[in-house]
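tokens incoming
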């Protein structure tokens, strides 16, 4: 799910000498988060997830809150698959500037936090190939047919809407935005970058 790894926004790797700086930044961010005190929490997920139906195939990003890490990125997708070791993996991808632009992606193995409910999980990304970074996701709501879902970070700051269809109708998108509003989010902040290459989906 795009953008919920925005804590390292604006960083680029320029040689091995940058590694200690990046690791220090990660530790600093964690310390700041610890000292910042209580913050608003996202609403609890509403429905359990069927692992076999949800964590498979491709989802298309329909809307998201602004994230510096993927600023200017369009055609966002999330893929779930099992690697050669049988581990469930999430891969997030988008293209810079246009559907034909340079690919930007992050991926990592998934750990489900509440087996049985399966609607809270952690992705263990490796940013810039060297920096480990774990991000927690909550699936706040989803369609009964697993055609769409709304995902957020526990902090209530970031939310995304994804669909199995890369081009939902205006009415379908409006209905999903209404669901996000009902969950307490300021949907006026949402961006809608669902531009996908011809033939995709």
């Amino acid at each position: 799910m795009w953008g919920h790894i925005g804590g390292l926004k604006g960083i680029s790797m320029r040689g091995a000498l940058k590694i200690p700086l990046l690791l220090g930044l990660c530790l600093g961010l964690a310390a700041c988060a610890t000292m910042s005190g209580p913050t608003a929490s996202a609403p609890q997920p509403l429905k359990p997830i069927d692992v076999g139906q949800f964590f498979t195939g491709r989802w298309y990003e329909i809307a998201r809150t602004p994230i510096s890490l993927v600023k200017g990125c369009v055609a966002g997708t999330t893929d779930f698959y099992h690697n050669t070791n049988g581990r469930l993996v999430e891969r997030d991808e988008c293209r810079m500037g246009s559907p034909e632009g340079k690919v930007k992606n992050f991926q990592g193995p998934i750990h489900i936090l509440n087996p049985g409910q399966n609607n809270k999980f952690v992705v263990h990304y490796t940013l810039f190939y060297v920096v480990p970074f774990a991000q927690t996701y909550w699936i706040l709501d989803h369609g009964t047919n697993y055609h769409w879902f709304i995902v957020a970070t526990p902090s209530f700051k970031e939310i995304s809407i994804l669909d199995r269809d890369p081009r939902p109708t205006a009415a379908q998108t409006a209905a999903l935005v209404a669901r996000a509003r009902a969950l307490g989010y300021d949907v006026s902040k949402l961006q809608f970058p669902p531009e996908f290459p011809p033939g995709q989906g």
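note: Confidence is low (pLDDT under 50) at residues 7-38.
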